[in-house]
Specification:
alpha+beta; Enolase-like, domain 1; 3-stranded antiparallel sheet; elongated
């Protein structure tokens, strides 16, 4: 019943439960996922035909609770899976359903059709998982280092310019920066040209003091008035972990989210991206 397929992967917890306890835990997770209600031994005996009595199932559920796989929210209630129980279920008990040809075609279409940027792949991945599972999905991308390609300035007004930064991945970021007092837009364009020559193709995820001093020596110019430009460039090039979600509307199909307050809680969490990273 193990889900892992990598023979070199440590099988922590694989033998912690005997076969009967595995079956009882599997049934509790299945029923709780379907109903969002605490599960009792009689329900398990009636619905899942485990071949043992309700009393035996009750004893096994008590053992599973003692070992941390189940919890009892109220004294008179049945049991629900704990985090440890869910983890064991996902690692060792869950049997992934085969992907149909229609679903494969849908995945290929969502992930490969006209996708040119990494963030589009992750965004489509979240949508694909949501469509397949009929549930909310969340995908995160690790911060990816970007290579500097080039920078440009666009005039905004007499005191400000728009900084455009392009990376090797084709990402384009923009920000408004102040034109230093005593400088002109043409001088900023010359600075951009020298910066492009100096930084092109580098793995630049920060513009620290050492980097700026090296650049200052290269251009033979005092760069102190341009510190706001370098700070903005640093922010743009620093790798950021992104969070993508899909299928929030699918939550209404899940029994536990018939409660409007629970639905509101999860939607509020999705808006707080920093908690999901």
């Amino acid at each position: 019943m193990a889900r892992r397929t990598n023979k070199n992967e440590p099988r922590y917890g694989a033998n912690e439960l005997n076969e009967r306890k595995r079956k009882v835990l599997w049934a509790v997770v299945q029923d709780y996922a379907d109903t969002a209600e605490p599960v009792g031994s009689r329900t398990i005996a009636r619905k899942y035909n485990l071949g043992v009595s309700s009393a035996t199932i009750r004893n096994e559920m008590q053992d599973l609770e003692d070992e941390g796989y189940l919890e009892q929210p109220h004294t008179s209630a049945g049991r629900i899976p704990s985090i440890k129980g869910y983890r064991f279920y996902v690692d060792w008990l869950m049997q992934p359903a085969p992907v149909s040809n229609e679903e494969k075609s849908m995945i290929d279409s969502m992930l490969l059709d006209h996708v040119t940027k990494v963030d589009e792949i992750f965004r489509n991945m979240a949508k694909a998982v949501s469509s397949l599972t009929h549930n909310l999905s969340v995908a995160t991308s690790a911060g990816i280092k970007k290579k500097f390609n080039y920078v440009r300035f666009l005039p905004l007004d007499g005191a400000r310019a728009i900084l455009l930064v392009v990376t090797d991945r084709g990402d384009v970021s923009n920000a408004v920066v102040d034109i230093p007092k005593g400088s002109t837009f043409d001088e900023m364009q010359l600075l951009a040209d020298r910066m492009n020559h100096f930084l092109h193709g580098r793995d630049v995820d920060s513009m620290d003091e050492k980097e700026i001093l090296s650049f200052q020596k290269d251009v033979e110019k005092n760069l102190s008035p341009y510190m706001n430009v370098f700070q903005t460039l640093q922010r743009v090039l620093t790798p950021q972990q992104e969070v993508y979600s899909g299928g929030a509307s699918q939550l209404i199909e899940q029994p536990e989210f018939k409660n409007v307050e629970k639905m509101q809680d999860i939607l509020n969490l999705l808006e707080q991206r920093d908690m999901l990273e």
